[in-house]
Amino acid sequence: MLIVWPAVTGLVLMTVPPVRRWAREFAVGASVVELALVVGLLASFDRSQAGDIQFSELHSWIPQIGASWALGVNGIGLSLIVLSAVLVPLVIAAGWKEDDAHSRRAQYLGLVLVSESFMVGIFAARDVFLFYVLFEAMLIPLYFLIGSFGGAQRRYAAVKFLIYSLVGGLVMLVAVIALYFQGPGGEQAFLTANLTGLSMEPWVERLLFVGFFFAFAIKAPLVPVHTWLPSVAESARVGTTTLLVAILDKIGTFGMLTLCLVLFPGASRWAAPFVIVLAVISVLYGAFAAIGQDNMYRLVAFTSVSHFGMIVLGIFAFRQTAIEGATFYMVSHGLSTGALFLMVGFLEARHGTVSVKAYGGLQKVVPVLAGTFLIVGLSALSLPGMSPFASEIMVLIGAYPAAKVAVIVAILGVVLAALYILLTYQKLFTGPTPTAMESTKDLTMRERLVVWPLIVSMLVLGIVPALALDYLREPSAGIVAIVSEEAGK
Amino acid sequence: MTYSAPDIAWAPLTPILIVLGAAALGVLLEAFVRVPAERRVYQFQLSVVAVLASLVAVVWQWVALDGDGVVVLKSMILLDRQALAWQFLILIFALVGVLMFADKGREGEDAFTPLGSVAPGSAEETVARAKGMYLTEAFPLVLFATGGMMLFATVNDLLFLFVALELFSLPLYILVALSRRRRLLSQEASLKYFLLGAFSSAIFLFGVALLFGATEQTGMYEIGEAIATYMPQRSALILLGAFMVVAGLLFKVGAVPFHFWVPDAYQGAPSPVTAFMAAATKAAAVAALARLSYLVLFRLAWELNWIIWTVAILSMVFGTVLAIVQTDIKRMLAYSSIAHAGFILVAFAGFSPSALSALPFYMATYGLATLGAFAVITQVREITPDGAIGAEATRLGQWAGLGKRSPLLAVAMTLFLLSFAGIPLTAGFIGKFVAFRAAIEAGAWPLVIVAVLASGAAAFFYIRVAVLMFFTDAPTDTSPHVVVRPTTLGRVVAIAMAIAVIVLGVLPGWALELAHSAGVLLAPATGG
Predict the structure, then answer these.
(1) Tens digits of residue pLDDT in A48-66
(2) Do the Cβ atoms of B428 and A166 come closer than 8 Å?
(3) Per the CB 3.0–4.6 Å rule, which of A223, A306, B146, B148 could disulfide with B168?
(4) Is A308 within 8 Å of A217 (Cβ atoms)?
(5) Is this structure's pTM higher than 0.95?
(6) DSSP states of B253-305 as a string?
(7) B interface toward A at CB cutoff 8 Å?
(8) ipTM over 0.95
């Protein structure tokens, strides 16, 4: 139901002409209903059993190839579903003023809703085949979202995105099929549960791990396969970018966590040193690249590359605190980067440019906007009291015993984060105001309603992280148990 | 010397007999029904009834078949579930093909020239057109081709295989030449197809002769048995013969380096013929190749596998790369069909047993999407300067903005393209999945990696067409303009195929089950 609802409403929006007139209202309504459904799910989730899969559904789908329609969430999947459900209505509301033509607007919002379906489905899939199908099929609505709505370079960006993702996905397909022959076979051969704890030849396991990891590293994205993200961020519409970076890229880290580590624990340990090096490179490279950007979308995209490096570092430390922190960071990063992208979008809506150089001295003109931007920015640089801080500190402390050097280097990235955020703020909002910008409008009510809930939730989660950690602790412990159990053998 | 009539089990042959009988009847209709318009109706009805009756007969045979299959005519023909599955598939393609053959717009024009024997652009042609002539021979021709293909999928004897090959090839050579528009292009395509086809038939026949010389047998099964005896001594003859037979079949599959006819024939032929040819010929050729592989070639796996690997890789790479640079949609689909021939060969690599059930399913997914895509192509037309509906608008640029004018067709076309690309939730994905699975099972994973990379690149040009249809505005200044010709049959075919692609993509369980039970070849241990 949770999965089907947005897809159905999205398709209705695209195909039924009378609805198009009220596309925005319809889409917000549909996504709010989805949010309500998710909140209902959250309320009935048994927190004391967060490590177990709950709300399981299991239907035979294509028994001939061992695929099942198997759904269910543990604490991690649920948190990410909640994140998606929260962000989608906000993104729709943020883009309220875009598009004059009804039909285009309906197309855009319909695609957004269809994508939401795929996201929820992926976070809930418990069958590797189902996961793969959704993972790949999702590219199509996304491709259209990027390629048809956005800036001048959007086609190029969309093709780049598609090629990167497809190649990653297809390499994963080989691994998925090969995994089938390692597993027990039969009508439920692809259930994640049936594929966990296989004993494979080390080299087979490593190859399969690489196949899966490659796809997830592209999605996450990790240096050196990150280059699609800045192009997409620059060219796509801000709503698309927000969804993409705040939620969809989490599928990469989510996949590493729940598939790579769980299915191939031996190979994960084997690959951990390489992955951690890649992660640290991402942290630093992303941060340095962000400092050099003038285009704000690219800037935020590179900060994300840096943050994803941090998440991957946490995941591949194989420590309870680090993985818990990484999962928490996935949620926090969604909130903080989502807010940051939306803020940039608001600026762009005012002056039609995202070049840092074009702005200046706005603090005097639009104090609320400047303040909000500052808070959002500070959250991205992990100011204590905000949730990114709590999660980042957990990752770093948790990973320290496992990878001391990596953590010390990664801390540099945190320092650099302060640099690129504060520098940007300084250029945008202090100094002399260009005359063209003296009549800039402050944040409107709608815009405040979009961004402030994100800030509030970051504050709440930053001060009382237990709210989220209660959901994340046990699943993380379960994953750590699987990864390190084999080490004991 | 006394002659004794051979003992023939007629019942298993009913599907083929129905189709060929109807074809013969169709030829008589040509002679005795004078009014072209009436003749057209009769021929159409006859063809549809024959194909449907044959379908019923195939289903009846499938249900009645006990054990692995029936041996007919001293193992000339092996009727097993694999053969029936291919026959069923070919008949479905033929049914859709016939519907497309009969499709004509309000202005009464179908895809064929009114009179095939007159010179293009001559005064006689104008007269024929004015008199409302129809080239109704197309229907019996397609029935003959269908019968030949069904036989092709069934026979065990290589000489008989050659007869079946000619039986379905000759009508196709003619059909390719019969386009109503761009007749010179069509005739050129037919000539090329014929010359190369005749050449490859000769190679095939030469291969059969060599194999016979080495093993003293013409039956595939018997050759397979004899190879074990003769292999070390007569390996040169056997290998060369097997190689030439395979080359003849690969020509029909359209794999590199036997692909040169494909782009021209696909582009020049009338679109309904292209659709039928792409789907059914490929299916028949793959069926015969499968039988040959599992009865003969697997014994030569060590010596011949590299050929399959090379041809598969070449087909995928060439097909994909050349498809990317095409500007004509029919040529693009032709190159994509070459790439698909490569994907099909991937399933053969290593002779995994599950390939026998993967292949019919893959061909079903590919064939249905191909028929649908060409049905859409027949609908998109240019407008001639005097406002009449002209030839098909096949330049890619002319498809810009189709999504706005005809959303239904554009959505259907997008589905077919996504299915070609193998995107999940369409039939093509499941087809690729089972094909690649068969290859990986046999340990051919390097080949599968090439295949997925080619699919990745191929997705680029498929999606490009989708983008063109939905996100590019139609050019306002180019002449001639493009219209969507609303014809009932073409539209019905396109929509039905789109539904089939979705159903096979989302709920393929039942079809895979059928394909699975079709994955058995009859090995006539008793020799008939």
Answers:
(1) 777 777 777 788 887 777 7
(2) no
(3) B148
(4) no
(5) no
(6) HT-TTS-THHHHHHHHS-HHHHHHIIIIIHHHHHHHHHHHHHHTGGGGHHHHH
(7) 418, 423-425, 429-430, 433-434, 436-437, 440-441, 445, 448-449, 452-453, 455-457, 459-460, 463, 467, 470-471, 507-509, 512-513, 516
(8) no
